[in-house]
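Tokens in:
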């Protein structure tokens, strides 16, 4: 296909993988990493602004990110099993996450499990944490779509619009006769000009992030409502964008499975926002600080006498007529590690 001399179409990158010695550097992986960093950085700032402890978002990310990557890959493999299993397919390709293929629903679901574990360990409510990281997550998704751009994947049907995306033929740099769509280099031959659905979703995600930030400031969203707004906004756009895509996908009743999932999740998010509204304003800052790692377990092991009279733990039980007993209790509490004297992490 020949293009006019002065074209307004969007050219695809000539390649998505670069070799630095024996190490392949993949644009898709870099975009995912940058997105995660942005989500953590912004989430940390929002968390502290709401009264949470510094460093908590990073602590949660240690659990949530690995869980999310595994969940995203599992969802992709399950819903696109035809790409990895069956005649002529290599099941080992299912673990090659660097070649692209992460399902956002699996990433959110299993990533949420990881976040719940981390929040529970620190005594922090998961919905409050979710509200803080919501805008960062959707911006991370926008950055991740740039990875699809470099991979020349997940685009729409042919178009003659000025912003059409040019898809080039890519070949093995060592053997120009072998087509390599992911790891190859463009030979300049145009395969098609299509709808840049990666760009549509990228712009939509940025708009959703802006709406969540505005609504959160305007209405002081709490108890998971900011996160639910993000989910509702994202799924609303994902529904119509998904209908434009032409890449192979599993269909249910003639419709791409991700369309059905988007619709169901949208309804669930809206219902949650309505129900959570009854819980009132945001969670108080002190609830977001939780406790330090291991402090909950230490508290459970405190002597019953200390729990019954916390004043004895710091030696302030001056009204106790049996002064010797009070001193013994205070000394015992000190010898036990002064657990009641330790203050929760205040941030």
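Residues out:
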């Amino acid at each position: 296909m020949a293009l006019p001399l002065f074209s307004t179409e969007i050219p695809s990158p000539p390649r998505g993988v670069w070799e630095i010695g024996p190490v392949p550097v993949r644009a898709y992986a870099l975009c995912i990493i940058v997105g995660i960093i942005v989500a953590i950085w912004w989430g940390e700032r929002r968390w502290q602004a709401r009264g949470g402890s510094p460093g908590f978002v990073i602590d949660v990310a240690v659990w949530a990110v690995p869980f999310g990557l595994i969940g995203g890959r599992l969802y992709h493999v399950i819903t696109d099993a035809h790409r990895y299993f069956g005649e002529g397919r290599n099941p080992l390709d299912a673990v090659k996450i660097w070649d692209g293929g992460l399902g956002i629903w699996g990433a959110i679901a299993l990533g949420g499990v990881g976040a719940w574990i981390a929040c529970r360990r620190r005594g922090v409510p998961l919905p409050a944490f979710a509200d803080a990281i919501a805008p960062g997550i959707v911006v991370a998704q926008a950055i991740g779509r740039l990875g699809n751009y470099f991979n020349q994947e997940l685009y729409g049907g042919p178009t003659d619009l000025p912003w059409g995306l040019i898809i080039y033929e890519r070949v093995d740099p060592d053997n120009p006769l072998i087509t390599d769509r992911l790891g190859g280099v463009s030979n300049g031959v145009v395969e098609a000009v299509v709808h840049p659905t990666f760009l549509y979703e990228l712009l939509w995600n940025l708009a959703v992030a802006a709406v969540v930030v505005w609504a959160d400031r305007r209405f002081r969203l709490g108890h998971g409502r900011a996160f639910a707004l993000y989910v509702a906004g994202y799924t609303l756009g994902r529904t119509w964008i998904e209908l434009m895509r032409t890449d192979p996908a599993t269909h249910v009743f003639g419709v791409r499975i991700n369309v059905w999932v988007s619709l169901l999740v949208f309804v669930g998010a809206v219902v949650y926002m309505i129900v959570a509204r009854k819980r009132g304003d945001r969670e108080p800052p002190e609830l977001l600080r939780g406790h330090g790692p291991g402090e909950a377990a230490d508290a459970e092991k405190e002597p019953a006498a200390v729990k019954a009279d916390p004043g004895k733990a710091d030696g302030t039980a001056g009204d106790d007529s049996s002064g010797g007993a009070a001193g013994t209790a205070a000394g015992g509490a000190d010898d036990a590690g002064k657990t009641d004297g330790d203050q929760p992490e205040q941030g």
